[in-house]
Amino acid sequence: MTSARVAVKKIRCHAPENVELALREFWALSSIKSQHPNVIHLEECILQKDGMVQKMSHGSSSSLYLQLVETSLKGEIVFDPRSAYYLWFVMDFCDGGDMNEYLLSRKPNRKTNTSFMLQLSSALAFLHKNQIIHRDLKPDNILISQSRMDASDLEPTLKVADFGLSKVCSASGQNPEEPVNVNKCFLSTACGTDFYMAPEVWEGHYTAKADIFALGIIIWAMLERITFIDTETKKELLGSYVKQGAAIVPVGEALLENPKMELLIPVKKKSMNAQMKQLIKEMLAANPQDRPDAFELELRLVNIAFKDSSWDT
To answer: What range(s) does the Protein kinase domain occupy (predicted)?
Structure first.
């Protein structure tokens, strides 16, 4: 037995929407064959029906699991509604809250910013390599683990979490063995959180490049400490936006209305690293084909972070 601390997430499967969110998270996290330090790790998933429990596995033929899949597909409960169904996710324990709480309770720090950008780009490259499009990247869904910070100069570890809206792009067509290119896997369900949604998501025809856009919003907001107040929760959240008169408008929505709109970067600071400014502009390009993919993004951020080192030799 180990004494490692874990987090347990309990989801009540009492409505088709809950079942779909839970299954999406399970499918995404259980499809990953290896671990990544910046992606939340699913230790195990337990399915409970009343007093009976069973371990869930990907592609299980268990009748309870198949009832949940059918519920998700049909959009209606297919099991006895008098029974209580729950999914229990056993995951990494993160002791530092989320990215919003962590950054907004501290003074801006260049070293932290650099570390967070590198960790997030590495996580996204890993997810896209594993054919997973997250679709809801935002600071609320990025958790902080401080437990392994032994030395005072170490930055905390970020963990991309909450895969309830994620999509695993499966192989199809003539070469089922060939890895899927997530940048050619088109999705049509408009989902996510307004301020982080790419223009094409608002339209309902998008690929993994929508994740790049969301990360662009996050990185820009982190570097300049741009925040807005969530109208529902009244919480201060990191996120960049466009001002139209007194109103603040999500960048993606504004670009959908005017794709030629020039983003003012930086908007608060007097100056910004020229390469960083250019990269953020490309990440937030109205045309998804003009955005870097996750692998190019990771390389470019590494180059910016270590620009004094010679990476050509």
So the answer is: 1-306
Domain 99-305: which CATH number of 1.10.510.10, 3.40.50.1460, 2.60.120.1440, 3.40.50.1110: 1.10.510.10
Catalytic residue, chosen from 136, 140, 211, 293, is 136
Q: Is 136 a catalytic residue?
A: yes
DSSP 125-174: HHHHHTTEE-S---GGGEEEE-TT--STTPPPEEEE---TT-EE----TT
Express each pLDDT in 285-309 by its tens digit.
999 999 999 999 999 999 999 874 4
Regarding pTM above 0.85, the answer is yes
Residues of the chain with pLDDT under 50: 1, 173-176, 308-313
Residue 119 belongs to what H/E stretch? helix 110-129
